[in-house]
């Protein structure tokens, strides 16, 4: 995914989230009240892994037979420390984990080959800029953390994968359907730094993974 397309998708998502949040909020005094002090998120995730050629070939695997989609979960917590005009500043972190499998079929060159599995995990500190009130708000956020992305046969012992420095950035929204319970959605991009090959580890190219997460938030 190109940087230009990535930014267009991100901006479109944030715009739509903000419009929905604006039209769905009740016109009560609570909408203008501060967001609060803390929120926790629990979301399921969908991850288009893509079939990166360099990543697969460095592991001796044809890209076309690698998993293209992953399913996972994401948990996180954020504290809101300062409000300036319409912006509330927050700090927090999230943890993401996902996996995807692909078994060979009769159209593959080796239909009796192993089931391949991709795994992705990321620890992501974040600084957020939040817009809204206690009934719901949208946000943009980002930070630098680390991630681990692996590809191996599922029935074999997975080699220990190195972690790579990873920039995360994205946005989302939370709509509170009850005082302490909200519907939460987040679109996040993970820009993974490249890793050079070692005596025991293959190289990994620079990659960007997109993660769409939806679930619940609590405050």
What does it look like?
The protein has 219 residues and is mainly beta. It has helices spanning 3-24, 53-57; strands spanning 38-48, 69-84, 87-102, 116-133, 136-153, 164-176, 181-192, 207-218. The chain has an 8-stranded antiparallel beta barrel. The longest helix is centred in the first third of the chain and has 22 residues, at 3-24. The chain starts with a helix and ends with a strand. Residues 1-7 and 19-30 have low confidence and may be disordered.
Please supply descriptive tags for the structure shown above.
219 residues; single chain; 2 helices; eight-stranded antiparallel β-barrel; disordered N terminus; mainly beta
Total helices: the number is: 2
Amount of helix: 10-25%
Major sheet: order of its strands?
Answer: 1-2-3-4-5-6-7-8
Order of helices and strands: HEHEEEEEEE
End-to-end Cα distance:
35 Å
Low-confidence stretches: 1-7, 19-30
**How would you sum up the global shape?**
elongated
Question: Major beta sheet, specifics?
Answer: 8 strands, antiparallel, barrel
Mean pLDDT: 85
Structural class from helices and strands?
mainly beta
Write down how many β-strands occur, each being a DSSP E stretch of 2 or more residues.
Answer: 8
Radius of gyration: 20 Å
* Beta strand %: over 45%
């Amino acid at each position: 995914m190109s940087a230009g397309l990535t930014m267009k998708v991100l901006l479109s998502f944030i715009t739509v989230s903000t419009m929905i949040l604006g039209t769905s909020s009740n016109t009560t005094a609570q909408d203008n009240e501060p967001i609060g002090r803390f929120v926790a998120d629990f979301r399921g995730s969908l991850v288009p892994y893509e079939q990166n050629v360099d990543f697969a070939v460095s592991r001796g695997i044809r890209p076309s037979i690698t998993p293209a989609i992953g399913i996972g979960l994401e948990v996180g917590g954020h504290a809101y420390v300062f409000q300036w005009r319409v912006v509330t500043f927050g700090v927090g972190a999230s943890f993401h984990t996902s996996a995807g499998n692909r078994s060979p079929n009769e159209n593959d060159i080796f239909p009796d080959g192993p089931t391949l599995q991709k795994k992705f995990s990321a620890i992501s500190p974040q600084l957020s800029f939040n817009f809204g009130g206690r009934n719901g708000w949208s946000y943009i956020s980002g930070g630098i953390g680390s991630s681990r992305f692996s590809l191996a046969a599922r029935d074999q012992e997975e080699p220990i994968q190195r972690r790579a420095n990873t920039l995360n950035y994205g946005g989302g929204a939370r709509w509170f359907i009850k005082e302490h319970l909200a519907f939460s959605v987040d679109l996040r991009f993970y820009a993974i730094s490249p890793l050079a090959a070692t005596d025991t580890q293959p190289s990994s190219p620079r990659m960007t993974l997109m993660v769409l997460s939806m679930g619940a938030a609590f405050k």
